[in-house]
Fold this sequence. Notes:
By secondary structure, the protein is mainly alpha-helical. It is about 60% helix and about 0% strand. The chain has 9 helices and no strands.
Amino acid sequence: MTARGDAARQDTGTLADRLGRLFTHMHPPGAPYTNAHVAEEISGDAAQYGGVRLTEQYLSMLRNGRRRNPSPEVLRALAKFFGVPAGYLLGDLSQPQAEKVEEEVRFLAAMRDQRVRAIALRSVGLPPDVQESLTTIIDQFRRQMDLPGRGGATDDG
Length: 157
């Protein structure tokens, strides 16, 4: 069964979409990674990335959808570089697993925002019931602004 034919498989868009989210969100503070940087890092560290050779041009074609079937080795190397499970790029994760990876990507992106970190750090040490009250207040603001609850998750959790 293909990943597209199995309803239990992830529905997080195309490989290009998933790579785009990783490039957009999974980088150190400052500028996002470039295709050239990622290709050089992966190609330059055979021990870490299994000897995968990757060019800036090929990575660009993967990101814009002009190439859609890279080898599993290339996908594993990219997943390792970005710190996500290989199944996320291979399309092997169940829908809940893929959603969990997406949530972690959004969380890491949010934690780069100084204001978000300040709010999180200010809640450290407060009793659990106070933290829950703060969460309720934030969720109320999100609803008033027509934003999804809890940072992109459903309002249930």
